[in-house]
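Input/output pair, single chain:
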Amino acid sequence: MIRYVFWEELKKAMGNRQFLMIILAVAALSLLVPVVTPEGEMTNGFLLLAAAQEELEMYEFSSVAAQMQGGYFIMFIPLLTGLALLPVLCGDRETGMFRYLLVRSGKKKVLIGKLLTSLLCAGIAVMAGFLLAELILAIRIAPEAGKGQTVVSMAMGAFAYGAVCGLWTYLAAALIRNRYLLACTPYILFWFVNRLSTQLNLGNQENGALSFLIKLVNASYSLNLFLNWEWFWQTLAADALLAVLAFGLWMAVWNRRTDCGE
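Output:
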């Protein structure tokens, strides 16, 4: 039954034009991220696409692709994944179908199905958009031999980052019903966390407990999940704990309600 709920929720999230627009927006966002040239100047993917072929010979594809996952990409992906998940997390509650879904399938199965859909849908949207940007960039800058594994790792990191952003949106949806506020909440939260982490230099903390807490709330660490194996298990454990907390919050909220989500 969980598989049925998951499949129905996945079709609801990905079977519309909005999901395609999110992928295109992620690709455009990746190409807008500032890239440092070998001379130390600033450019971006769109300017590189318009540059003369002679100017592109000094660029390495893997280096440019790695820089496309910074800046605007980290900042605005939580907003885009929030928009992608609105049909899953808000649609049933707005149309009044949530109570029938709970009665037919059961509370735990519905919430697990929505959790898995949030992870997969948000991850696919970000990964597909990033791969599309890389494909467009490869038209002008030829990928160097032997760097395919690095590019694949970056794409998998994009999936992980999108999935964690979707997880935070799922968590916020337990408390927030307004779709516009729900879409903006992860973006505001991540902006605050990134600013705090930068100002206090928390990213270089050696304390194990504090480092684990930072990885729990700062989703951008997931971008390096498959590039820095030293952080892999700690980051993965933090994300798994966040998923358990999100599901537990949903169960706690709905167990206290008598209106079936209406």
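The radius of gyration is 20 Å. DSSP finds 13 helices and two strands in the chain.
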